[in-house]
Amino acid sequence: MDIFLINLASSQDRLSRMREVFGAQKLAFERIDAVDAASLSDDFVRNIVAPPMSKHARNLTPTEIGCYLSHRKVWETALSRGIDYATIFEDDIHLAPDAGKLLSAAADWLPEGADLIKLETLAMPTHVSRDGKVLMATPHRLKKLLSSHYGAAGYIVSRRAMERLCAASDPLPLPVDDVIFGAHYRVFGGLRAYQIDPAICVQDQYIESPEAGRLGIVSTIRDRHASLPVTHAGRSLIRRGLDGLSTKLTRRRRKTRIALLQALGRAEQKTIPFARD
Prior knowledge:
Blueprint lengths: L1 E6 L4 H13 L5 E4 L8 H7 L13 H19 L4 E6 L2 E3 L3 H6 L1 H4 L6 E3 L6 E5 L3 E2 L6 E4 L9 E5 H9 L8 H6 L4 H4 L3 E5 L3 E3 L33 H27 L3 E5 L6
Parallel strand pairs: 1-2, 1-3, 5-10
Antiparallel strand pairs: 3-9, 4-11, 5-9, 6-12, 7-8, 8-10
EC number: 2.-.-.-
Keywords: Transferase
Pfam family, one: Glyco_transf_25
């Protein structure tokens, strides 16, 4: 399994730390130079970002654009090499003690036709299948991911999914994790997505405290909280309306399906824990 680490050239301390993290688990990786948001010109940003999908939406921030382009760079690299599955990490993560064991043998447990395997948790409620495949006699199960579970700091992605993600990324429509793991967006609905439970990866900011191992590092390639005013005032009201209707219908269908699966005892809502020990 090819492992890629997204890392800014200016973040050598993070690269050193991740070498230790991966080295401790005997995992080889390739560093991908992250796109620095500060290097993007205003003209480039205007041309690369899609108009907001509704009148209530906002533009992507420069940091979100840099993050998205960094992930797209990995997809394009993997596709150009004919790689069937890529494992992608950002550089502010923690790994579970048995992550190396699972990732080294991923080819043995990946379901046939799987497109996305979410390795991390964002500590948000999500819907997954109630039962799941036990992975290599560990506490981890592989469950179907049925609803949105944001974050893109650790995931496995198939060639088919990378092709679809690249096709949906020119121009950039939303933050990258919305596009990959947002159930309301069109890409997710056409892919076979799974969640490892408990998760084997988590970003440092979602570790509860220093006593629990939090280091106080924050992603240098993403910023989900900053916002910029919408500048695409000329976007067609009809287009906005159609996009909004499509999103509402997608959400309604998914909610109906999840409710049915829950009624049958085949799905559950839960916050995926991180397997720290």
